Amino acid sequence: MTKKILIVDDEADIVELLGYNLAKEGYQIFTAHNGMQAVEMAKKNLPDLILMDVMMPVMDGVEACRQIRALRLSPSALVVFLSARDEEFTQLAAYQAGGDDFINKPIKPRILISKIEALLKLTTRENADILEVADIKINRENYLVYYNSETFTLPKKEFELLCVLSENPSKVFGRHEILDKVWGSEVVVGDRTIDVHIRKLRERFGNERFTTIKGVGYKINQD
Questions:
Q1: In CATH, what is the architecture of 130-220?
Q2: For residue 125, what pLDDT is reported?
């Protein structure tokens, strides 16, 4: 799945330069020009990584990072600070706010891209229990769901059903397979049980998120 990067800087030239180079590498790019915009864009788009300038108007990068972390939008989102200021107290403030790395300006695009690739690979290995389908992120270890700028839990069987469908979004899961994976082969439940749980997931995530294949089963849609 394409990784999403949010670039936050009040200098348009830097945003354009970084956006151009990262888009060429296949990343999906979002941009913001101050900390307040960054918080809103993070809530809306759930980026995998945020490149955050420190000194910006309206709201600085350190405060923006602090607010983004407080929202608990995603456990795997990385925040990499970019700054021309290299004082120790600036870097300490960035890390204390929840930053994952700090890179001094001027930025060297190739080095930055290599660092981003390494950070994202490491995060992918560390977050094997994170499932992501379109704008839904699921933390299987903590039973948390991140969707529509919210973090919440679901009833156990709804959560497990969502996980099963999300593990292979291109697959149509038959009723018997769903029953076996979610309820177990030794528990007797009717077909209507699956229908009820799918209906509840549709109420939460939208009717178009799930497709019913008549006589076969269900699948989750990535679009």
A1: Orthogonal Bundle (1.10)
A2: 53
